[in-house]
Every structure is written in C-alpha cells, then in structure tokens.
Amino acid sequence: MQGASGTYSVTATDLACRRGDRVLFAGLSFTLHGTEALQVAGTNGIGKSSLLRIVAGLAPAFEGGCTVQGTIGLLDEKPALDPALPLGRALAFWQALDCPALEGGAADTAAQLERLGLSGLLDVPVRYLSTGQKKRAAFARLLSQKAAIWLLDEPLNGLDGQAVELAETLTAEHCAAGGIALVASHQAFRMPNLRTLELSRYAA
Amino acid sequence: MTLLRRDLARLLLGGRGGGALLPVLFFLSVAMLYPFAVGPDAPLLAKTGGGVIWVAALLAAILPLDRLVEPDIEQGLFDQWALRGISEELVIAVRVLAHWISFGPPLMLAALPAAALLGLDGQTVRVVEIGLLAGTPGLAALGVTVAALTSGLRGGAALAGLLVIPMAVPVLIFGAGSLGTGGESGLALTAAASLVLIAIAPFAGGAAVRASRG
C-alpha cells in the first residue's frame, strides 16, 4: 500500500439492494476514508454480503451507486485457492498475479505466513485444510494482495479464539497503515475506532 | 502469463481429474473397440475409420467439460480476478487456449496409432490430421463456452455434453466430410467453423460467468 491515507475512499450514496423480488435495504449512504473502519452488523439474510458485493462491483445496485478510490481486496466464504494444489503453490499463484516483480517481499511473506500459523501447512493440499485454516490462508492471500480497501465478509467464521484476535489485529494494522476496512459480521469485531452500521435500520 | 501457466498445469496434469491422459485413452479405446464391433473387414474399416476417429475425438473433447469452468466459479476465483481488473473474457480466452493444448495435440498424436488400428491409408491419415488441427480448436472453444453456460446448474455436466453435440455438428460434418472428397474445401470450412466458435467463445463465456454471479 502506497500513497497518503487521504487518497482512498469508499462512498455509497442512497444504495438499495434487491434479491429476487425482495428489497433488502434502501437509502443506505456512508463514506469511508483512509484509516477508517466500518462494521456492517445485522442478522442473517439482511443483506450484509450483498452490500459488500455491491461495493466490490461484483453485483449491481438496485438503486443508488457506489464509488471507490483504491484497490479492493475481498475476503468471503470462498478462499479462491485451488483445492488440489498444495497451499504454498495456491498462494504463489495469487502472488504472481498481484506483484509479479516481488523480490524483497519473500521474507515479508514468510513472516506473514509464520504469523498466521501457516508455515507448516505449505505442502498440504488446500482441500485437506480445515475451515479455520482455509480462512487464515485467505487472509494470507488478502495480505499479499496489498489492497487499500478490505472487504471482509464474516472474517471470523471458523476461526478459534487466538485466530480471531489475530484477524482483528491484522485489520487494525491495515487501517493504521492508511487502509479502509468494511467488515460484515454478525459477531462482535473488536478493534479501535470501529464504527458500526446497523443494516436493520435501512431494511425496506 | 500466470493464468495460462495455471490453466495448463491444471488441465494437462490435472491431479484427480485425470488431466490430458484420460480423454486420450478414451479416444484410443474407442478406436480399438470399433474393429472388434464391426469385425475384421479391412475395406470397411478403412472406409469408415476416419469418421470413427472424428466421433471419438468429439466424445473425448466432452470428457473434461465439468472441470473447465465450474470449480473456479465455485471457489470464487472469478470474483477475485474481477477485483483485480482481469476480465472474464480474458480468463475464458486463456482457458480455451489451455483446453485446446491439453487435448488437441495429444489427440492428433493418438490419431496415428488409432489410424493404424483402423487400417487407414496415408492420404486419409493426412486429411484426418489436418482436419483435427483445424477442428479441435473450435471444439475447445465450444466446450469452454458450454461449460461456462452450464456451470452452477444441477446436472450441468450431463447437460453440457448434450449441448456440445448438436453445436459441434458443423465442425464434424465438414471435418469428416472432407475425408470423402479428400478436398481442401471441406478442411477450409472446418477451419472457418472453428474460427467462428473461437471468436464467439470469450464473449459468450464471459457473459455466462457474469450472469452466474447473480
């Protein structure tokens, strides 16, 4: 992540989301700048994931729009790692796409993997990993992407107590370094300066 | 490019899916079974053998359809590519190329022993090989397009096979038809049908992937 923290932003104006013939939420507006974090809270099925996919540009908004300044990294329930490949090679694929000319980053990456407790799992095919291990692997993918804006969809699912803390710390560090985090979670997410958006208030 | 390398590694070696070996073995076994089924009538075999090779090639191309596109949608890879500005069209185009490399040239090689089994003469083998070279890229493009269209559907794999067969008919007619005439016009038409399929594939496939996102 380079550049001043003021250059990144996410602006949603008057967003509405429809799934099938049901309008999930409407009139939702918010603005996030660098170093800010927002938790989207609400019960299952209220549209948290849909909101994140609209912000990511992967789904169209029913009404309103969303403008994003900065690169987006998405972490959802799909790890996007080849199930048949060993973890190390599955991660290396994304690394080759994200920063092809990575020379000094190797030590950096190794440190990240060590921190996520994945160093010993690099030879294990992704399909043999547990839910929590896959989630941590997805975090490794997200970290190496070095995106300015993190969209985290239920990032704590499947993680144990220690890993939950780690995920919260990583997100806090990301924001402290000037990034933006948009977290959709029904669980408590503990990090400094986290604002909360109750999606139920916008339910149609 | 990284994408092509990954696609090739996945489709050629393929781990659990069997990789490129499975369609080739399937192709050879069809060519081997055919003489057993019709009996040792050399003139008949030589006359119909070219057509059998074509049908076997088409069926072999259908085998890997279910793992061409669907796993990547399911695992969220297409979402991650989209976030990085890599369009679905590009991914599909690369996949067509990788799919062709993983079954086209191996089939052309396997067609040689198959031709020997069926007792084809040199001229026919030549036409079959050129026809396969012209036709298999089209079959690859068609396969990837249909795989993208049927991904996410229940029973998509079976449906994909059913959809590919009628759409592959032009390639088959011109490809196998050129055997009878031995002419270049049939081969040229095979190549033309192939080119049309290749030109459509990235856009149709890309749109299908986006639509499946919902």
Automatic annotation (TrEMBL), chain A:
It comes from Novosphingobium guangzhouense. Gene3D superfamilies: P-loop containing nucleotide triphosphate hydrolases. GO terms for biological process: cytochrome complex assembly. This is Heme ABC exporter, ATP-binding protein CcmA. InterPro entries: ABC_transporter-like_ATP-bd, ABC_transptr_haem_export_CcmA, P-loop_NTPase. Residues 10-201 form the ABC transporter domain. GO terms for molecular function: ATP binding; ATP hydrolysis activity; transmembrane transporter activity. It comes from the Bacteria. PANTHER family: ABC TRANSPORTER I FAMILY MEMBER 1. Keywords: ATP-binding, Cytochrome c-type biogenesis, Membrane, Nucleotide-binding, Translocase, Transport.
